[in-house]
Design brief:
With 90 residues, this protein is an alpha+beta fold. Helix content is 20%, strand content 47%. Helix 1 packs across helix 2.
Length: 90
């Protein structure tokens, strides 16, 4: 799982006592607003709809943000897992 920042996934884990694996933490975040930072410096915020074992991720009602300001509203977006540096609940 190249490209995944395990410390950020661990941050999700620490918020859930019943999770002991990174994918459990992401599953717990399903349906919640998350922040996704990418290797290219872009940041997306949206509702976590789905993910797979490669951390390929689908966000709904997604927005691209820059300096904590909305740059554009995207809607549904698919993000390739190897481009992700961090996933965190909002």
């Amino acid at each position: 799982m190249r490209g995944v920042c395990y410390s950020s996934v661990w941050g999700l884990l620490s918020m859930t006592n019943d999770s002991d694996r990174p994918l459990d933490a992401l599953n717990h975040a399903r349906g919640k607003r998350v922040i996704v930072n990418l290797k290219n410096g872009k940041q997306y915020v949206g509702t976590l709809k789905a993910f797979d074992i490669h951390i390929n991720t689908v966000l709904e009602n997604a927005e691209e943000r820059e300096n904590n300001q909305v740059v554009r509203k995207i809607g549904t977006i698919f993000i390739r897992g190897d481009a992700i540096v961090l996933i965190s609940t909002e």
